[in-house]
């Protein structure tokens, strides 16, 4: 009886330890991605850009939107470039892509634009480059968010990057 009782407690303790380790590993991995995005924000040269992004982070996506009730990707880039850099972009991402001077992705600087084609050959999405491979954009599913440009989902559809200057 005593031996059975000890075996039960030993199995229970080992189970708890193994479960805790498994949970911790997942949490650390998630924190690492968030940590890198936070580092990109912390390393922005323009504090005005930092405030703009934090003010808009989480605003929901709304096609054609241009305010805090909802904004689309080209609207977000339009507002950011105008307020932070004093540049008036065209309103549509495809036209914004034609407006910029092409630049290699390895030479991007804070405020440059990155363009994607999720639906074919035409540009249909835009984001604003930050630093260290991160950019900010209005995601159709997650709203305004800082994202990792090196993710395969973005690398496959990246079609152009450039500067408005």
From TrEMBL:
InterPro entries: Murein_DD/LD_carboxypeptidase (IPR052062), NLP_P60_dom (IPR000064), Papain-like_cys_pep_sf (IPR038765). PROSITE patterns: NLPC_P60, PROKAR_LIPOPROTEIN. Keywords: Hydrolase, Protease, Signal, Thiol protease. Gene3D superfamilies: endopeptidase domain like (from Nostoc punctiforme). Residues 43-165 form the NlpC/P60 domain. It comes from the Bacteria. It holds the Pfam family NLPC_P60. SUPFAM superfamilies: Cysteine proteinases (SSF54001). Belongs to the peptidase C40 family. This is C40 family peptidase. It comes from Pedobacter fastidiosus. The lineage of its organism: Bacteria, Pseudomonadati, Bacteroidota, Sphingobacteriia, Sphingobacteriales.
